[in-house]
Each structure stands twice: as C-alpha cells, then as structure tokens.
Q: What sequence folds into this?
C-alpha cells in the first residue's frame, strides 16, 4: 500500500525540466480565436437578452431539439459556466510543465511533450468554445444548433485522443 502512495519521479513541477520552447503562432491564434468566440457569444447574449422570451430552452436532446425550459435569466448561469471553462482552460494551457502525462519526462523529450500538452489544451479550449457557443445560440435564438454542438463535441474527442497520442510519441525521444 505504501508504494502506491509514492510519487513517480518527474511528477512535481520542481522535478521536471523547465519549459524553454516558445508557443507557436498557430497555437496562439487558436487560443485567441477561442477567447474571441467567447466574447462574441457574450455580446450576442447581451444584445438579444431584452428581446428573449421569459421562458427559454435550457436543455436539448441528442438531436438538438429543446426538451427543457426555464427563466430567461438562466442564460447567465450557462454563460458563467462557459466563461469559467474558457478562462480556466486558457490559463492552464500556459503551464504544460505541470500536466500529467502518460510518458516519463526527461531533459531530451520535455519540450516536445510540453508543446503537445499545451496544444491539446488549446484545442480543447477551442472545441469547448464551439460547443458552448452552439448551445447558447440555440438557446437565445431558439433554433436547432445540433450541428454546431456536434462539431464542438467531436472536436473535444479528437483533441483528447490526438493530444494524448502526440504527447506519448513526443515522449519517446530519449
């Protein structure tokens, strides 16, 4: 039991090589685009709020059809969750040295693994932003936003699978 509680070497930030690579332009652009989509979604909510009906869709089935309803003020709860997720993922993506990886971090592979970890989180942020924007647009405009939500959901899955696979491959550099 005691051996199960020990941390593996390289688990803590202080035991890993420092991050020294520079974030690529594409990763920075995707990060900015995800945040811009969040801001645009807030603008749409604020502009549409006065004209929204008192009862709005609050839940959608798998096909994107509304099947739950609530007060229009509930849109701000959804936007709060969206904002917390967007800000949290964006912030965490700047610290790939502290991520848990499925590979041992060494001096030789650290920068490649960190880069793949950062990229995975940035793509997760972008996919989450698309997913939440689809949900919010479907709510405030009362239309079937299922295709937008589906794109976001697929993006989440692809981001995780590709990110984990690429970080494992980057970890093979010894």
A:
């Amino acid at each position: 039991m005691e051996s199960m509680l020990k941390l593996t070497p390289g688990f803590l930030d202080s035991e890993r090589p420092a991050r020294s690579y520079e974030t690529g332009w594409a990763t920075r652009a995707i990060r900015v685009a995800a945040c811009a989509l969040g801001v645009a979604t807030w603008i749409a909510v604020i502009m549409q709020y006065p004209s929204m009906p008192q009862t709005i869709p609050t839940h959608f089935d798998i096909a994107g059809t509304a099947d739950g309803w609530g007060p229009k003020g509930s849109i701000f709860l959804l936007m709060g969750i969206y904002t917390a997720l967007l800000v949290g993922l964006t912030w965490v993506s700047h610290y790939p040295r502290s991520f848990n990886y499925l590979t041992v971090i060494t001096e030789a592979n650290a920068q490649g693994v960190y880069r793949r970890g950062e990229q995975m989180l940035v793509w997760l942020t972008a996919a989450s932003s698309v997913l939440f924007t689809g949900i919010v647009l479907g709510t405030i405009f009362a239309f079937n936003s299922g295709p937008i939500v589906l794109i976001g959901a697929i993006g989440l899955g692809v981001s995780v699978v590709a990110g984990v696979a690429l970080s494992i491959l980057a970890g093979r550099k010894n």
Remarks:
- The first strand starts at residue 55 and ends at 60.
